[in-house]
Design brief:
The complex is a heterodimer of chains A (419) and B (237). Chain A has helices at 4-13, 15-47, 63-70, 83-90, 118-122, 149-155, 203-209, 226-230, 252-260, 272-312, 317-325, 330-371, 382-413, and strands at residues 55-59, 81-82, 95-107, 110-115, 124-125, 129-130, 133-136, 144-147, 162-163, 166-167, 175-176, 182-188, 198-202, 213-214, 217-218, 238-239, 241-246, 267-270. By secondary structure, chain A is of the alpha+beta class. Chain A is elongated. In chain B, 38% of the residues lie in helices and 22% in strands. Chain B has a five-stranded parallel sheet. Chain B has a four-stranded antiparallel sheet with strand order 2-1-4-5, with helices on one face. In chain B, α8 (184-201) links the parallel β7 and β8 (204-209). The longest helix of chain B is centred in the C-terminal third of the chain and has 18 residues, at 184-201. The relative contact order of chain B is 0.21. The chains are: A alpha+beta (419), B alpha/beta (237). The interface between A and B is medium-sized, with 24 and 30 residues.
Chain lengths: 419, 237
């Protein structure tokens, strides 16, 4: 096609306006793919947060709040489960293992989770992956703490460091348990799940730091020091929730029903997969709103390009007449404009990809640190390829409108533009 | 002398309900002839040029350029024939602003394999032929090559346009008021160059202008108002 290189040179001569159009498309492509990528990664990371757990049990509320506080460490439980009920239900013959969870305290903004050593044995995330210690070992002493990878890296802790647990979950606790400091006994390897943002201590420790507290404040004059507390009975009176692994999956619904109908206190057992799905569909609306917005941004970018080409039509009438005089067919004139639109879209896509990857490289550590979401940087996926092909095709289509305008003008003008 | 251009009973109107703008019973130009066509505005000049270039077709009558019957050929064939056989020079703004000097001259070679082949045969390489023509037109190619064509003087631009009309030796060169934007000296120099190149290539030249002072320089003079029965002074062409 003789006008292929003409299109490139014509664009090069209008660098400034062309680069604005390219930039608009690039930003829209970056947004489109960025949203798509974060959506995919978020979904993957989301479904990776818990694995192998058949039921999660908490005080009766809703399945989403229960999932949020027990797995995502977001929000609070409205009520606890008594230790007695927990032991009774855990003794069910269908139950293979349980992991008790006791929440409510924090350390410099990170949630503190009271649990036992079964957590390190039975908890699974992603595709049945076990928790691995990056350094040190699981807790052993009452005042041992095991840190999630993010807690350790954000606060710069190492094994052997001393930390103080704050009461409550504000970023700065109103009151702290500074009379009973913890020692970091181990640091977990990164999991890309909320575990990374959790400080793990034993159930006994949770009991110990609250032993001289009533109603959220230390009882005046009743201070019990850390050494004395070790000799006391630290059996918890209640826990927040527990995870259940069954011997056979077929028992899931039977055990769930048994727990939900438990007479001792009102409890709720949920299937994590179902609750995750429910939670994701809540976010799905926002997610599809984002996708729709980014599609419209792409449309806006392409309309910008179309405007640029349309507005150049009149001043290019002489150019078209010259091309006609040297033998260009009307189809060449048409193709010239379509090629220009195509190149602008292609360059826009290329620049958009470059911006996306630059953005990912820059944002990856921030997103991981802030939201615990690990965005992998790989080549464009098949879906993204389809999106890009769609943008390129839409770009060529957007070129048809100005190309038709050019065709019409050129046919009317012939070789001589009367002015 | 062989006839290169031949018009017989050609009529043209823009739309069927509008009056005729062109009604030429007979007009022909011999091969190698240099014809001066004088035409004030309103005499149908633009229409004639579009017909000769095959961009427009007559409502009736026959137009042939060489072996091509423009009144019978498809638009694509006419475009191809124009690219191969006809070089145009217009009054002004002849150049594509985003192309270099050489690229402007080589434009016809982009659309016509025949002219590319001829330019190659003449000088081994179309770009070398473009250079030769520009040099013949008195343009110092090397010192101008870095300039944007829009920065050239009007006279220089017209000489680039002439080189483009001549590249690849088309049979017919049609010039439409190419000198009207030039001053007296530049006009004479331009015509000398154009004539000598056309003569060297054995090409036919149709030169349209309202400036009859140039008339004596040509083999033959035709007044468009005599040729065109539809011409009415002051009527829109």
């Amino acid at each position: 096609m003789p006008v292929f290189r003409l299109a490139l040179k014509s664009l090069a001569s209008r660098r400034f306006t062309v680069s604005l159009a390219v930039f608009a498309i690039a930003v829209s492509v970056m947004l489109l793919l960025g949203v798509e990528r974060i959506r995919t990664e978020a979904r993957a990371s989301f479904s990776n947060t818990i694995s192998g757990t058949d039921l999660i049990v908490g005080a009766r509320s809703g399945s989403v709040p229960l999932l949020l506080y027990s797995v995502f460490r977001i929000g609070n439980a409205t009520n606890n489960i008594s230790w007695r009920s927990y032991r009774e239900l855990a003794a069910d013959p269908n139950v293979a293992w349980t992991i008790p969870l006791s929440l409510g305290d924090s350390h410099r903004g990170f949630r503190v989770l009271g649990t036992n050593s079964d957590y390190f044995r039975f908890f699974r995330y992603a595709r049945a992956r076990k928790l691995v210690m990056a350094a040190g070992k699981p807790f052993d002493d009452i005042f041992d703490a095991v840190l999630g990878a993010e807690v350790a890296s954000a606060l710069g802790y190492r094994v052997g460091d001393e930390i103080v647990v704050d009461h409550g979950i504000g970023r700065i606790g109103f009151a702290s348990h500074k009379d009973k400091p913890f020692r970091v006994s181990g640091i977990l390897a990164r999991t890309g799940t909320p575990v990374d943002r959790t400080v793990h201590v034993s159930l006994g420790a949770i009991e110990a730091i609250h032993i001289d507290w009533r109603g959220g404040t230390p009882v005046p004059g009743a201070r019990i020091d850390a050494e004395r507390v070790r000799r006391m009975n630290l059996q918890p009176r209640a826990i927040t929730a527990f995870m259940v692994g069954l011997k056979t999956r077929f028992a899931t619904f039977a055990v769930q029903r048994k727990i939900n109908e438990y007479r001792g206190e009102p409890l709720l057992a949920i299937l994590p997969g179902v609750a995750l799905h429910e939670l994701w569909s809540l976010m799905g609306t926002a997610e599809s709103a984002l996708a729709v917005i980014s599609v419209f941004v792409v449309v806006a970018g392409l309309v910008g390009m179309m405007t640029m080409l349309m507005s150049s039509l009149n001043e290019r009438r002489r150019e078209m007449a010259i091309l006609r005089s040297v033998g260009a067919r009307p189809s060449h004139i048409f193709a010239l404009f379509v090629f220009e639109a195509m190149f602008v879209s292609m360059i826009g896509i290329a620049v958009g990809l470059a911006l996306l990857y630059a953005g990912l490289v820059a944002a990856q550590p921030v997103i991981e640190a802030r939201y615990g979401l690990f965005i992998s940087i790989g080549p464009p996926t098949f879906t993204e390829g389809i999106y890009l092909a769609g943008v390129a095709a839409a770009g060529c289509l957007a070129g048809i409108v100005p190309a038709l305008g050019a065709l019409r003008l050129s046919l009317a003008d012939g070789m001589v533009v009367k002015s | 002398m062989d006839r290169l251009v031949d018009l017989t009973d050609v009529t043209f109107r823009w739309r069927s309900n509008l009056p005729l703008v062109l009604d030429i019973p007979a007009f022909s130009v011999g091969a190698g002839e240099r014809v001066f066509v004088s035409g004030p505005s309103g005499s149908g000049k633009t229409t004639l040029l579009n017909l000769l270039g095959g961009v427009a077709v007559p409502d009736a009558g026959r137009i042939s350029v060489g072996e091509a019957r423009f009144d019978q050929l498809s638009p694509a064939k006419r475009d191809g024939f124009r690219a191969d056989r006809i070089g145009f020079i217009f009054q002004s703004f002849n150049l594509v602003p985003y192309l270099s000097l050489i690229e402007n001259v080589l434009l016809p070679c982009r659309f016509s394999a025949r002219r590319r082949a001829r330019a190659e045969r003449r000088n081994g390489d179309p770009a070398a032929e473009a250079r030769r023509l520009l040099q013949r037109m008195g343009l110092p190619v090397d010192s101008l090559s870095g300039r944007r064509v829009a920065d050239l003087s009007v006279g220089q631009q017209q000489r680039v346009a002439a080189a483009r009309a001549l590249v690849g030796s088309p049979d017919l060169v049609i010039a439409d008021e190419p000198t009207s934007a030039l001053d007296e000296d530049a006009r004479t120099a331009f015509l000398d160059l154009l004539f000598s190149e056309v003569a060297a290539g054995g090409q036919t030249l149709i030169f349209v202008s309202h400036d009859r002072r140039m008339e004596p320089l040509f083999d033959r003079h035709v007044a468009l108002s005599d040729l065109n029965r539809a011409a009415r002074p002051g009527a829109d062409s």
